[in-house]
Amino acid sequence: MESYHEDWTDSQRALYDECYRAGADWADDPATPSEDVQHVINLGEADDDTLADSEIDFPPLVDAVTEATGEVVTTVPASHDDPAFKGFVDGVRDTTADEVFGL
User: Fold this and answer.
1) Tell me: the pLDDT tens digits for 39-80?
2) Are 24 and 91 contacting, i.e. CB atoms less than 8 angstroms apart?
3) Residue 34 exposure: Cα atoms within 13 Å on the Cβ side
4) pTM across the whole model
5) Residue 48 near residue 54, CB atoms below 8 Å
6) Lower Cβ count inside 10 Å, N or C end of the chain?
């Protein structure tokens, strides 16, 4: 389920939406390795203290942000407060069947 932070601007919500769709499409693609899907689910379930303000360069996420913003990015903040990161992992999680990964 798509979920915004209440203090996000319209442009942050739009970025979340674009990355959510990209994450859902990526997870739904039969060519996507299940290990990669599990990796994103694990990132989504980690708390921000565990992520510790890190930047990640996971190619499908970086590609989604680049496409959504029209700007080339090489990393994305690994934070549930970041609309791109949150949108992508929410899209993956919501698309993945619960029984597939025991969620």
Assistant:
1) 999 888 888 788 877 899 999 999 999 999 999 999 999 988
2) yes
3) 5
4) 0.89
5) no
6) N
